[in-house]
Amino acid sequence: MTEQLWAGARVHLTEVDPGTGALCGNVGLHVGDDPSLVRERRQSLAQRLGRDVVWMDQTHSTRVELLRVCGDELVNVDSEAALEHPAPGEWGPVDADGVVIDARGCQGAPALAVQTADCLPVVFSAASGQIVAAVHAGRRGFLGGIIARAVERIRSLADGPIDALIGPAICGSCYEVPAGMAEESEALMPGIRTLTSWGTSALDLPHAAASSLEALGVDVDIDARCTREDPSLFSYRRDSSCGRQALIIVPA
């Protein structure tokens, strides 16, 4: 697992564990892995982070939910429902593709995780790392506006600068799509269309997301590693039986 201090918060990225299986190091419960092994990995991850972790049930939606710590409970502000605590170190899953937590005044607030295996993971930090967010932005969610929705939710909580970190995803030279899909995507998001390294139609989600965020006044950092090209990362395009890595942000 790689980790770094970033924008007042801590950011961690799980990676493929050494081994021969396609699921070594997987943290996703939806990919055919043994649930008990996944729970063990998640618990070990929470122990290493020193925080519980909030997980999402990601469905390529544009939903971004706001969470608040209320005593010993973690509450979804939108539904007014308390999150489940299904296993040690684990909260959720939240039925959304984006979560924001306002951790001001809540020392030890839980971390937020976004799972990917080619899609775009984005984490956000505001208020010196006390307001953080994690977003899963696949093609549908990104073109549907989930990143802008996350920025809007953060700005509804506090003024001041917002930082975004775009984690490893499939790059524009590898993300091959049908020509018609590339044309439709370009019409919605000018500049997203590109070509693969072998000359076919493709989309460049990381750089399109960076441009969109910069246009919203957000400071952007990018981890430019391509999931398809980097064997230390899971990639559905490279192996459809693969697991999922998690980009995790820990509030200050």
Can you characterise this structure?
By secondary structure, the protein is α+β, with helices and mostly antiparallel strands. The chain has a single domain (2-164, 223-250), classed as 4-Layer Sandwich (CNF1/YfiH-like putative cysteine hydrolases), CATH 3.60.140. Helix content is 21%, strand content 31%. The chain is built from five helices and 16 strands. The chain has an eight-stranded mixed beta sheet with strand order 6-5-4-8-11-10-12-15. Strand 1 and strand 2 (9-13) form a beta hairpin. The chain starts with a strand and ends with a strand. The model has no long low-confidence stretch (mean pLDDT 95).
Short description:
The protein is of the alpha+beta class and 252 residues long.
Which features characterize this protein?
single chain; 252 residues; alpha+beta; CNF1/YfiH-like putative cysteine hydrolases; eight-stranded mixed β-sheet; six-stranded mixed β-sheet; 5 helices; 16 strands; Cu_polyphenol_OxRdtase; zinc
Averaged pLDDT, please? 95
Radius of gyration: 17 Å
Q: Count of DSSP helices?
A: 5
The first-level CATH class is given as: Alpha Beta
Which spans have pLDDT < 50 for at least 5 consecutive residues?
Answer: none
Main beta sheet: strand number and arrangement? 8 strands, mixed
What name is given to the CATH topology? CNF1/YfiH-like putative cysteine hydrolases
Order of helical and strand elements? EEHEEEEEEEEEHHEHEEHEE
Could you tell me the strand content as a percent range?
A: 25-35%
CATH architecture: 4-Layer Sandwich
